[in-house]
Amino acid sequence: MASSVATDSILSLDLGPNDCLYRIRRRVSGTRNRVVYVTITNLAVIPEEKRTYGPSVVEELSKLREWNQDWSTLRVHMEDGHVWCEADAFQPHAVPKDRLHDERYPSYNISDLEVLYKGQPYYLKLARFPHELPFLFREMDAYHSLAQEASVFRLAPKLVAYVFEETPDRVTGFLVEPVQGRVADTGDLLQVAAAVAELHRVLVHGDLCKYNIFMTSDGPRFIDFEVSTTVSEATGRRLAEEELEGLAGKLADESGAGRPWGWH
């Protein structure tokens, strides 16, 4: 893998108490990019002041003998002051084939995506690391299930495509259409409650903070179904009742809970 520090960049990181995960974009030739994954199993591999600053992380990792070799994943260890690596000891994460509905949605390489898709802005939802896949599964299933029900499909934005890294069998995210409207408030309680009751024909949202409810020209629409539950599940009906009972408090909440980062 021919690459230089200047063309490697940190896309995502997840810093834990004992390890750190990095998702890295590498330019391998011309305009061709790869997404590779690095797991640091001992935080001492990278000095504390450099662990979360992208250029510094790349600078430290580039010192590894294996750095410019051809690999998709790299696990970096340190024992008794000695640093050693395992290349491709684990597979890059992806949505299993049986969780996809390939016949309904096109797939696009994340490296080919631009700000606009077919002339329109869309939102990208991504499982950056393996532990985020269960949340992605739930949200993908929710959007797909709602789209199948004529009575409730309008309550959520449309899932328009899958997104993969490098090869189509490595789906790690999806594109969803944007929602135009304002955040719901207490004055919308009756209308939102009616919409939530409709939503419960298919699923329980699970995280109905007001920032996940938009008032649009077509009525309330819901986003972020990462912790949704189908009503067919054993606890679904009880959760649906609890969700409706707590709705007024969610709309009145001024704590900022659930507000997206950077929201003003």
CATH topology of the largest domain: Phosphorylase Kinase, domain 1
Helix/sheet category: alpha+beta
Q: Largest sheet, described in full?
A: 5 strands, mixed
* Overall 3D shape: elongated
What is the CA-atom radius of gyration, in angstroms? 21 Å
pLDDT below 50 for ≥5 consecutive residues: which ranges? Answer: none
How are helices and strands ordered from N to C? EEEHEEEEEEHEEEHEEEEHH
**Distance between the terminal alpha carbons, to the nearest Å?**
43 Å
- pLDDT averaged over residues: 91
Strand content: 25-35%
List the total number of helices: 5
Describe the structure.
With 264 residues, the protein is of the alpha+beta class. Helices cover 19% and strands 29% of the residues. It is built from five helices and 16 strands. It has helices at 54-61, 133-148, 189-199, 236-245, 247-252; strands at 8-15, 20-29, 32-40, 73-79, 82-87, 107-109, 116-117, 120-121, 123-126, 159-164, 171-176, 182-183, 203-204, 213-216, 219-222, 229-230. The protein has a five-stranded mixed sheet, with helices on one face. It starts with 7 loop residues before the first strand and ends in a 12-residue tail after the last helix. Residues 200-235 form the RIO-type domain. One of its GO terms (molecular function) is protein serine/threonine kinase activity. It is an enzyme of class 2 (transferase).
